[in-house]
Amino acid sequence: MDLKKAIRDIPDFPKPGIVFRDITTLLQHREAFKFALDQLMQRYSGRDITAVVGIESRGFIFGAPLASMLGLPFVLIRKPGKLPAEVVSQSYELEYGTDSIEIHKDALKKGDRVVIVDDLLATGGTAAAAAKLIESLGAEVDSFAFVVELSFLKGRDKLKGYDVFSLTEYTSE
User: Quick one: pLDDT at residue 173?
Assistant: First the structure.
């Protein structure tokens, strides 16, 4: 199945010259959504993974069902101030400024191996920060899984040394 047919392109969003790849239409297309989850399940079934980690917020949409399908725990990485217990934070660079993400300090332990799931790989900043968070807890990043990769933004460059998988790729705006 060609997932691009289920993803809506929205020109000039959030600003002129950008083509936004909208996965909400994929989520509304039950066959496409099931196909995406099945592909992730096939990819990660039988691997030595102890947890699935989802990056806020659309990583939750794909990561939580994947964790359930694999019979593994699901761990959240969220924006600051959203997790109720003690957290570890990681800052990262944005085009203009910085941002940060957090994980519960007790969410993972030494020896855990995780796949980090998000809907989109663009510049790779958030994903790289997520890997640093995981590793700061003593866990290991087995791989990254994305539904959409905007390869023209070269996000994989920030993830060198990691296994990176995407279901669909856009090579230009």
Answer: 83
Query: Which two three-digit tokens encode residue 152?
Result: 């023209």
Rounded Cα–Cα distance for residues 156 and 62 (Å): 20
Question: Please, which residues bridge with residue 117 across strands?
Answer: 54, 145
Residue 94: what pLDDT? 77
**Residues classed as catalytic:** 58, 95
CB 75 within 8 A of CB 103: yes
Q: Name the token pair of 100.
A: 């940060």
* SS3 of the chain: helix, strand, coil, percent, to 5: 35, 35, 30
Distance in Å from the first CA to the final CA of the chain: 22
Q: What is the pLDDT of residue 97?
A: 79
Q: How many CB atoms lie within 10 A of CB 164?
A: 18
Phi, psi of 128 (to 5 degrees): -65, -40
Q: Dig out the tokens for 112 from the structure.
A: 């855990």
Q: Give the chain's residues under pLDDT 70.
A: 95
Cα separation, 30 vs 24, whole angstroms: 11
